[in-house]
Amino acid sequence: MILLTGANGQLGTDFKKIFDKIGIKYIATDYTELDITNKLAIEKFVKGKEIEIIINCAAYNDVDKAEVEKDKAYTLNCYAPQNLAKIARQIDAVFLTYSTDFVFDGKKDIPYTEKDIPNPLSVYGMSKYDGEKAVLDTYEKSFVIRTSWVFGIGNNNFNTQVINWSKSKNELNIVDDQVSVPTYSYDLAQFSWELIKINKFGLYHISNNGIASKYDQAKYVLDKIGWKGKLGRAKTADFNLPAKRAKYSKLDSKKVEKIIGKNIPTWQNAIDRYLVELYNK
């Protein structure tokens, strides 16, 4: 049996889709069913359920708000994953949780590997990095997967923002000085599941292939939906955001591709499939 936390978000939604398709039994929970910040509540919940795998898709993802809600960010991104790792250790279950490209400072100009040393620029990034360390130090049967710019039909994301803006505006300005890669939550869930089956625990990067700025991503989406407006370039500094962003945070996913023996699709291919899914929803 699999315990899935944060099951109503983008990633959780796609895990459910994959598990339903292949006939895997799981218990899907969100914060209303299970408070992962409460270790005693988790212990009580898993008792007698024969949980073999715990997949944590819950997180605090508001990068700017985290600057003033540090306790909340740390509770969900660091302490809760550590609680789950402790419970997984108690019941001898495999544990998997997620981190982010925001753990890096963006000073490189080639993709970040798992061997690169993090240096977060924001409270959000630091809460995720401290969460990584807490989980890996707590339990040896853990996977920590870093990803970037996640989008899926389970929730709002940058793609849906761009589509919504396009409905009411004839002109948009999108930053071109944040560079990473958009990642489809379905591909992230699929490759995570392939990795779990191999049982080679540790730290991994899983993002779609290719590279893009926010401008590139927006342009691709707008071209696909046939928007006739004017798309301009902007800089991160123009928006005076509370949290600092790395200029470059592209993740290198070669480690996981080599272990699984399969290449992750490109972000363009991923957006194509996402748009089909979105409009067939």
TrEMBL record:
Protein name: dTDP-4-dehydrorhamnose reductase
Function of the molecule: Catalyzes the reduction of dTDP-6-deoxy-L-lyxo-4-hexulose to yield dTDP-L-rhamnose.
This enzyme's EC code(s): 1.1.1.133
Gene3D superfamilies given in the database record: NAD(P)-binding Rossmann-like Domain, UDP-galactose 4-epimerase, domain 1
Keywords: NADP, Oxidoreductase
Keyword NADP: yes
Pathway where this protein functions: Carbohydrate biosynthesis; dTDP-L-rhamnose biosynthesis
Lineage, top ranks: Bacteria, Fusobacteriati, Fusobacteriota, Fusobacteriia, Fusobacteriales
TM region positions: none
Pfam families reported in the protein's UniProt record: RmlD_sub_bind
Domain RmlD-like substrate binding: 2-278
InterPro entries named among the record's database cross-references: dTDP_dehydrorham_reduct (IPR005913), NAD(P)-bd_dom_sf (IPR036291), RmlD-like-bd (IPR029903)
GO molecular function per UniProt: dTDP-4-dehydrorhamnose reductase activity
